[in-house]
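Contributing new records

If you add data, match the layout below exactly. Sequence lines come first and carry their own label; structure lines follow with theirs. Keep one chain per record. Anything else will be rejected by the validation script.
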Amino acid sequence: MKGKKFLLAKRPVGEPKVTDFEAVEEELPPVGKGEVLLESVYLSVDPYMRYKSESIPLGTIMPCQAVARVTESKNPAYKVGDNVIAAYGWRSHIVTDPEKLISTFDGSISKAQVLPDFGGVPTSLALGVLGMPGVTALFGLIKLTAPKAGETLVVSGAAGAVGSIVGQIGKILGLKVIGFAGADDKVEWLKELGFDYAYNYKKISVKDALKESAPKGVDVYFDNVGGQISYDVCLRMNTFGRVSLCGAISSYNDMGDTSKPPLAPAIQIPAIGNQLSIHGFLVTRWLNEWQDGIKQLLGYVKQGKLKYRETITEGFDNMPQAFIDILRGENTGKAIVKANL
């Protein structure tokens, strides 16, 4: 049986191109003792893949998580028909020991997790609100910024997979929530989610928007974009404000281009003046609490407190284009690829 995978063929310069990736067919080995054959059902595309494309060796597989189905098994812990979540990269199929998977994200040994019954919600949510983006939003907000009811929260990249969840959790916790996105339809969606204020930063400056929506300043900032937006938010933050640094998508496409280094005002000035606590993080720091986070998020979903939207690209062969689209901001909510194998 043959499978297909995408390798990083060229180091992207600026926005990635479809030709930066090479589709390769591979002959799959027979399933051995303790192994399974996994077939991709849904694959995740995320902004972090852009900065990983600057560091992984050329000719290696692009990293991602996938929801996969067990189609053949010689491991008693994994039954044919089980759905699992695993980090094996841009692959259509893989034969592997599911308890000793080598993560394409950082090379660590990980275990394919059999997905529980989500109670009627789609299994694709294991890549979104009930997966890495959801846990990132939940723990990145509550554990790093300790928000209190009545405080003001600003979220950049608010219509993305993480930002849209952060804002809704903020409302659950009793915060005033302000979101910034890059399109009018995204702004309307944020209002549907319950954001108190939502702005298209391409039509109104962050400074002017916050004069209206945060006249008493900002207490908590969840940053998904970096750059000028983040500097302007930090200028409006109250003394001892807290910042959770999750992403910097505004400058990802400038990585590796020495002719156009990313430029931004010095965030140290408002950070010092407002005595801000700024926390950069990777969600993997909470692996030991992961399942607790998923249970909490699933509870919010079933209670109707947490809504979601998915942008689905059909077909495994369209992985590169789906990745490029997310960097252009063409997704609302979680971007995924439905493999259709």
